[in-house]
Amino acid sequence: MRLSRIIETLHPAYFDFVMATGIVAIAANLEHLWWLPLGLTYLNIAACGVLLAMNAVRLACFRQRFLKDLADFERGPGFFTAVAAFGILGNQALTILNQPGIARALFIAALLLWVGFNYTVFVEVTVNERKPRFEEGMNGGWLISVVATQSVADLAARLSGYVSRPDLMLFVALSMWLAGGMLYIWLISLIFYRFTFFPFKPDSFLPPFWINMGAMAISALTGAALVDKAQSAAFLNGLLPFVKGLTILFWSTASWWVPMLAVLACWQHVIRHFNRPYNLLYWSAVFPLGMYTVSTYELARTLDLPFLMAIPRVFVYIALIAWLATLAAMLHSMRIHWEDGSGARRNDSTETRLRSAL
Predict the structure, then answer these.
(1) Where are the alpha helices (DSSP H) in 128-165?
(2) Domains along the sequence of the chain with CATH
(3) Angstrom distance (rounded) from CA 322 to CA 23
(4) Which of 352, 217, 237, 229 lies closest to 297 in space, CA to CA?
(5) H or E element: which one contains 6?
(6) pLDDT digit string, tens, across residues 236-252
(7) What are 58-104's pLDDT values in tens digits?
(8) CA–CA separation, 235 vs 239, rounded Å?
(9) Is the alpha carbon torsion for 212, 213, 217, 220 positive or negative?
(10) What is the DSSP letter of 198?
(11) Do 162 and 232 meet the contact criterion of CB atoms below 8 Å apart?
């Protein structure tokens, strides 16, 4: 009965765990951190399989609840985490497992999910007549849609060497990369407006605001992949200066956000002494740290900027520590939940409010 309730109320954004674990594995692989890349990859495959099974059961047994989430202004954007998770897992299959066939299958799945969720969620929130107040509804969680778009673009660029028409795959990658960049501009303008012109209390700074940085980091990563593959397509080679400039712009924007978000986190926890219990949103703060590590590494390698290599060598451990801390908090929360079913009911209202950010 308890498992049935968990599946019925399962939040679409739980694929955040797969995103965070996948990018930390890729970061560890770039820095050659022992057995971590392979171990985290197998863990990620298992986690993704469990989440897919739970969502399949939810769709079959709780169809109305599932479809309601798709049309929900608060929970709907969480579906984009599944797209990003498939894209990141495809990257793992390609770079860590050396399985391009699996990566191609994950790319197709991610692309189909992106099309389905993109034109379901955004249309539904557009025509929805009941909308939250701007300062309550607008947060960094919306930028998961950018992460999802760029994850598909990045995987397309990396798979271009494994298909018969690399120019076509690179055109898809370039088009989605530019569309994701434009989507970021639209959304970050609203988020920055919310930051500066509306009251901002300690409980307003939710973990998904770290995606302000993560969305730009993955955009820079995709740009670096396009630069790396530019010789495979004449049209892309002709755009190389533009792609390089935009890639550095994306990375610079991500870098600008790092100290800003760190200061806000210190203000929230150290100065204002605000702490919240574990919830799934914390994984959305782990992912950007891993993504900034990987994007900086790839930018430095592709554009021949060796002085930047010091950054990923430090950030990989920051990302790993954040992943371990969040995992420990998640396991502790799960233990309490299973030992005391009433605890879940007591925390239900708090969890609902926090999860609504995605």
Answers:
(1) 134-137, 144-159
(2) 2-126+138-352 (1.50.10.150)
(3) 12
(4) 217
(5) helix 2-8
(6) 999 999 999 999 999 99
(7) 999 999 999 889 878 788 899 999 999 999 999 999 999 999 999 99
(8) 7
(9) positive
(10) S
(11) no
Residue type, 236: L
* Degrees, nearest 5: CA angle 61-65-66: 80
pTM: 0.91
Within 8 A by CB and 6+ apart from 288, the residues are 210, 211, 213, 214, 217
Q: Is 349 exposed, middle or buried (0-12, 13-18, 19+ CB in 10 A)?
A: exposed
3-class DSSP state for residue 125? helix
| 209-220 mean pLDDT | 97
Expressed in angstroms, the distance from the first to the final Cα of the chain is: 26
Pairwise CA distance, residues 51 & 36, whole Å: 22
Which amino acid, one-letter code, is at 152? V
Contact 135, 194 (CB under 8 A): yes
Q: Please determine, for residue 279, whether its predicted confidence score (pLDDT) is greater than 90.
A: no
Q: pLDDT tens-digit profile of 319-335?
A: 999 999 999 999 988 88
Residue 267 has what pLDDT? Answer: 95
Confidence at residue 135, expressed as pLDDT on a 0 to 100 scale: 83
Asked whether the beta carbons of 199 and 135 are under 8 A apart, the reply is: yes
